[in-house]
């Protein structure tokens, strides 16, 4: 049976997505294909026909300004390869200042088809969310921001069942499937500190948060200036469950290449590549959603990512016995729609 993701275990962004860019994350132990922001019906204490649970009033979601404890994160090592053609080089750096709010719209569309024996099931999901990054401090090449989801419009249909929908803007109580997503609206999901290369050096949530094949919450940038055709790579890993119940670490790498620069906008292609060799279809099904391809656009003058577009098109056979199959098609797009200034609230240390 398909299991569907819960916003409570977000990544960021998250990710896109670059959890970046994504608005959800993945459980530490892989358990098959998952879809953003939707909780597995089999994991609910209430069924699809259960009564709706009222969303918490907005006043209950307000948080007192505080300084969360940030957990140091081991800085990833980026491997760089110069362009074979040479040419003019471009130094890519993040340049956020305190009091900057970046507002983005993230759209994630996903379709899965699963066949086991004579049973075949389709699942479709759509999530459109608005996220904000509020930069509360920036000094000595370190920038700290608060990541929030400010609105969500989402739907899910499994097979021929009724489509479930939820919009945080319509004022209606969410279906239990979407309750955790509704509860997260407006709250600080994570406080993250990055350096000028976009590498995470501290965060308030998990030290090594899970991902959905979207890379980190930010686009990692090379240390040196890079020419068109130059590339760099960043490591990533996740844990999956073997059939005997033990865990297996699967290693990936995100490959980036500077494709072009036009009017100050750098276009970077990104591709996920699995390093660990997997021959068991049951294990392969657990990493199906981890392999994406796409492009990212980076404004070099402003020092920030402005758009991202990722796609998934993967299939695995015999993952649940001879003749079984699982196919996953998905697209995630993110675009910065607005930037504005704000006054960071006074913050007191959290006890």
Architecture overview:
By secondary structure, the chain is mainly β. It has a single domain (7-48, 67-343), classed as Lipovitellin-phosvitin complex, beta-sheet shell regions, CATH 2.30.230. The protein contains three helices and 21 strands. It has helices spanning 58-61, 179-184, 281-286; strands at residues 14-15, 20-21, 29-30, 66-67, 71-72, 79-81, 89-90, 100-116, 119-139, 142-158, 164-167, 188-195, 200-203, 226-227, 231-241, 247-262, 265-274, 293-299, 304-317, 325-341, 348-349. It has a 15-stranded mixed β-sheet that branches. Strands 1-2 form a two-stranded antiparallel ribbon. The chain is globular, with a radius of gyration of 20 Å.
Radius of gyration: 20 Å
Helix content: under 10%
Largest β sheet strand count, sense and barrel closure: 15 strands, mixed
Report the structural category: mainly beta
Distance between the termini: 43 Å
CATH topology: Lipovitellin-phosvitin complex, beta-sheet shell regions
What is the count of distinct domains?
Answer: 1
List the helices and strands and how they pair.
Blueprint: E1 14-15, E2 20-21, E3 29-30, H1 58-61, E4 66-67, E5 71-72, E6 79-81, E7 89-90, E8 100-116, E9 119-139, E10 142-158, E11 164-167, H2 179-184, E12 188-195, E13 200-203, E14 226-227, E15 231-241, E16 247-262, E17 265-274, H3 281-286, E18 293-299, E19 304-317, E20 325-341, E21 348-349
Parallel strand pairs: 3-15, 4-21
Antiparallel strand pairs: 1-2, 5-13, 6-15, 7-14, 8-9, 8-20, 9-10, 10-11, 10-12, 12-13, 15-16, 16-17, 17-18, 18-19, 19-20
């Amino acid at each position: 049976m398909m299991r569907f993701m819960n916003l409570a275990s977000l990544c960021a962004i998250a990710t896109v997505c670059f959890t970046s860019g994504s608005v959800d994350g993945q459980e530490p132990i892989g358990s098959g294909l998952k879809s953003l922001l939707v909780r597995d019906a089999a994991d609910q204490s209430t069924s699809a026909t259960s009564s709706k649970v009222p969303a918490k009033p907005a006043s209950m979601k307000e948080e007192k300004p505080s300084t969360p404890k940030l957990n140091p994160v081991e800085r990833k090592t980026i491997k760089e390869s110069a362009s074979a053609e040479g040419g003019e080089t471009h130094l890519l750096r993040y340049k956020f200042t305190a009091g900057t709010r970046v507002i983005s719209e993230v759209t994630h569309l996903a379709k899965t088809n699963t066949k086991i024996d004579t049973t075949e099931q389709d699942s479709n999901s759509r999530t459109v969310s608005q996220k904000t990054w509020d930069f509360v401090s920036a000094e000595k090449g370190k920038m700290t921001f608060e990541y929030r989801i400010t609105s969500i419009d989402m739907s899910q249909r499994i097979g021929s069942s009724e489509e479930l929908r939820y919009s945080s803007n319509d004022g209606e109580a969410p279906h239990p499937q979407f309750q955790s997503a509704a509860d997260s609206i407006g709250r600080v999901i994570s406080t993250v500190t990055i350096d000028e290369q976009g590498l995470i050096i501290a965060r308030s949530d998990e030290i090594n948060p899970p991902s959905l094949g979207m890379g980190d919450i930010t686009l990692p940038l090379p240390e040196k200036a890079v020419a068109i055709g130059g590339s760099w790579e960043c490591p990533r890993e996740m844990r999956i469950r073997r059939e005997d119940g033990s865990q297996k670490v699967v290693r990936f790498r995100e490959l980036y290449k500077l494709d072009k620069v036009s009017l100050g906008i750098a276009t970077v292609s990104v591709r996920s590549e699995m390093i660990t060799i997997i021959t068991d279809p049951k294990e392969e099904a657990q990493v199906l959603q981890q392999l994406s391809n796409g492009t990212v656009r980076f404004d070099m003058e402003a020092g920030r990512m402005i758009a991202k577009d990722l796609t998934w098109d993967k299939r695995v056979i015999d993952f649940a016995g001879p003749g079984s199959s699982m196919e996953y098609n998905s697209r995630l797009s993110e675009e910065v729609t607005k930037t504005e200034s704000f006054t960071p609230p006074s913050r007191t240390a959290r006890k």
